[in-house]
């Protein structure tokens, strides 16, 4: 286990280092002065310029420069955004929780919907229910997420006027920024009309969460169904039946654990897919998250922000993946057989 | 008169034929294949059959409803958009761009990915360890995210989006090919070929490749559906194909402003993407099942 942990941590450090190197090289590849791209100061005076060159060690070769950059990055000094002149790192800290909140709820819903449906389809393999669930999931899996979001807006927000089109909270309400997670912030905040605010926040959440979770539930259903089918046709299930156990006993005692544990890593991986889809959804719903922020930065060619956003999102995904890997290894002993990294 | 057979000869269909027979038994997958052929024809000959150009504006018919609506006109079967461009024409051209681009870039990344994967599968020791570990880390990042990052570096545009998505698709192919090659290398027919004196390259091209092709096709269809979704998503975010271009995703983002008065200008291009991806997924699923059935027989 220790060796495994060492290998994984090693991989984590190396991957993050590569991401850092890539983001450093980015400052030289993209058009414009590397100094401006690194610091985000659009027109430094001669004095400032000399100071910044010293700070980023630009005159001492790439290796020293990268070392300096690495130190600054770890210290949370990611430069300024070219358009807003805000520190990039603070911006990311502010916008990232909104994306995480959205993805987290969507993941929760898709697991709550996808797992039972997948298990049901797997148990009724080649029956009518299986065909129905499978075709619905195939459709959910093929639908482009942005089109789905637009259709939901057209139907629920524009035609029926039931739900708000965009944003995170009605402009009437003001919630102080504490953790960045809206629902937690509302519960923590000291405001008069708490239940009305909460209601409004949830109404804003419905459409983005729904459009995200439809696609992910379809994936979860497919994964679960395949795994349940494989497990239920295995020998030890036949042995359990031969012992005279009922369907329910066989499934709850033998089938369930063995079907769900092996697909845990893949299920957890859906979170990264979800996060990417959330970036598109954020643009459609004007959700103030990291995706909307990063894509605005790309439109405006705001290189310090692009660099920071890219680094933040990809490190988040990599850290998440490796953490899931380690947790799975802890709770699922069979995965020790595959020593090499499998994602 | 029924054909009489003189010889009591047993027929052994070739592996490809067996897969096809298995595939045919799945009617839904067969339907998907027909749908895919329809889209292929649409993107190949569709634009030639239509009387309008994709950018041609008809100022007399702005925001015309589709022909089946009460105020529609048969001259514009799918209606027109805010600039009076015929939506059917644009969808046909859009299928050509979206489908064609995705097809080309899947082929491209398949070639590159398989070469690297075969190399990684045959190499041992530190080299293979480095490739494996890096690859596993990259595989964890969704393709669309990689594509967005690469577009952020290269700048927007359809060409850059193509580069970005094909680069993002390569790791999957490397992973798949590496696993297959590594697995097949331990099998007996490879050992037999090796005893005959075949070198690594000969084994790869003459023994393993024929066994690998079907699995690569399955992987290719999966990659194709991902590629179509990614190309249109980038188009929708205006990071890929830019506005006047009839790429399906770009069309969707074009018609956002008139979504309320002309919902069909959103619904129809999106439905085209949806059906295209659905048929590809059906075919891919059918092929995978057929292959599995054949191998477990």
UniProtKB/TrEMBL annotation, chain A:
Gene3D superfamilies from the UniProt entry: MetI-like
Compartment(s) where it occurs, according to its Swiss-Prot or TrEMBL record: Cell inner membrane; Cell membrane
Keywords: Cell inner membrane, Cell membrane, Membrane, Transmembrane, Transmembrane helix, Transport
Domain ABC transmembrane type-1 residues, every copy: 96-328
Entry's Gene Ontology cellular component terms: plasma membrane
Family label: Belongs to the binding-protein-dependent transport system permease family. OppBC subfamily.
Protein's name in the database: ABC transporter permease
UniProtKB/TrEMBL annotation, chain B:
Segments forming domain ABC transmembrane type-1: 95-284
Gene Ontology cellular component list: plasma membrane
Keywords associated with the record: Cell inner membrane, Cell membrane, Membrane, Transmembrane, Transmembrane helix, Transport
Transmembrane segments: 28-50, 97-122, 134-155, 216-241, 261-284
Membrane topology: Multi-pass membrane protein
Subcellular location: Cell inner membrane; Cell membrane
Pfam assignment, any one: OppC_N
GO BP terms in the entry: transmembrane transport
InterPro entries listed in its UniProt record: BP-dependent_transpt_permease (IPR050366), MetI-like (IPR000515), MetI-like_sf (IPR035906), OppC_N (IPR025966)
Superkingdom: Bacteria
Protein family: Belongs to the binding-protein-dependent transport system permease family. OppBC subfamily.
The protein's name: ABC transporter permease subunit
Species: Bowmanella dokdonensis
């Amino acid at each position: 286990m220790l060796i495994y942990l060492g290998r994984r941590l090693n991989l984590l450090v190396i991957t993050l280092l590569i991401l850092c190197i890539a983001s450093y090289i980015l400052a030289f590849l993209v058009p414009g002065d590397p100094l401006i791209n690194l610091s985000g100061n659009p027109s430094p005076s001669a004095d400032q310029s000399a100071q910044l060159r010293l700070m980023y060690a630009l005159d001492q070769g790439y290796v020293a420069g990268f070392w300096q950059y690495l130190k600054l990055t770890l210290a949370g000094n990611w430069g300024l955004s070219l358009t807003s002149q805000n520190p990039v790192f603070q911006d990311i800290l502010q916008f990232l929780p909104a994306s995480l909140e959205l993805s987290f709820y969507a993941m929760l819903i898709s697991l709550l919907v996808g797992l039972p449906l997948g298990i049901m389809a797997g148990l009724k393999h080649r029956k009518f229910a299986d065909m129905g669930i499978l075709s619905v999931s195939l459709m959910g899996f093929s639908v482009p997420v942005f089109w789905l979001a637009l259709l939901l807006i057209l139907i629920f927000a524009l035609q029926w006027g039931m739900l708000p089109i965009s944003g995170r909270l009605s402009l009437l309400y003001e919630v102080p920024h504490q953790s960045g997670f809206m629902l937690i912030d509302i519960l923590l905040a000291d405001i008069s009309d708490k239940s009305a605010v909460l209601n409004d926040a949830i109404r804003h959440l419905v459409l983005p969460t729904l459009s995200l979770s439809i696609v992910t539930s379809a994936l979860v259903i497919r994964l679960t169904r395949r795994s349940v089918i494989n497990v239920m046709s295995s020998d030890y299930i036949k042995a359990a039946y031969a012992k005279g156990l009922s369907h329910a006993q066989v499934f709850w005692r033998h089938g369930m654990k063995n079907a769900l544990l092996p697909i845990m890593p893949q299920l957890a991986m859906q979170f990264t897919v979800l996060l990417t889809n959330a970036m598109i959804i954020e643009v459609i719903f004007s959700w103030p998250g990291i995706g909307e922020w990063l894509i605005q930065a790309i439109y405006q060619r705001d290189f310090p922000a692009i660099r920071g956003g890219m680094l933040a999102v990809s490190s988040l995904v990599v850290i998440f993946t490796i953490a899931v890997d380690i947790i799975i290894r802890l709770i699922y002993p069979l995965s020790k057989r595959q020593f090499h990294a499998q994602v | 008169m029924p054909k009489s057979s003189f010889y009591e000869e047993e027929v052994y269909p070739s592996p490809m034929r067996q897969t096809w027979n298995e595939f045919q038994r799945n009617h839904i997958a067969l339907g998907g294949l027909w749908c895919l052929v329809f889209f292929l024809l649409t993107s190949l000959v569709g634009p030639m059959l239509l009387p309008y150009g994709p950018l041609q504006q008809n100022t007399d018919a702005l925001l015309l409803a589709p022909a089946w609506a009460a105020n529609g006109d048969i001259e514009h079967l799918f209606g027109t958009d805010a600039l009076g461009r015929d939506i059917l024409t644009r969808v046909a051209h859009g299928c050509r761009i979206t489908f064609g681009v995705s097809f080309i870039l899947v082929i491209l990344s398949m070639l590159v990915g398989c070469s690297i994967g075969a190399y990684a599968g045959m190499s041992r020791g530190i080299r293979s360890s480095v490739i494996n570990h890096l690859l596993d880390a990259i595989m964890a990042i969704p393709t669309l995210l990689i594509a967005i990052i690469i577009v952020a570096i290269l700048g927007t545009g359809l060409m850059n989006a193509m580069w970005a998505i094909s680069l993002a698709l390569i790791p999957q192919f490397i992973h798949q090919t590496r696993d297959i090659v590594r697995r097949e290398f331990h099998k007996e027919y490879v050992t037999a070929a090796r005893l005959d004196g075949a070198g690594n390259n000969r084994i790869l091209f003459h023994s393993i490749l024929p066994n690998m092709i079907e699995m690569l096709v399955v992987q290719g269809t999966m990659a194709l559906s991902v590629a179509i979704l990614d190309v249109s998503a980038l188009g929708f975010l205006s990071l890929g194909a830019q506005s006047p271009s009839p790429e399906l995703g770009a069309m969707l983002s074009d018609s956002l402003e008139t979504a309320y008065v002309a919902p069909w200008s959103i619904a129809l291009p999106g439905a085209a993407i949806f059906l295209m991806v659905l048929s590809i997924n059906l075919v891919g699923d059918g092929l995978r099942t057929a292959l599995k059935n054949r191998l477990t027989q």
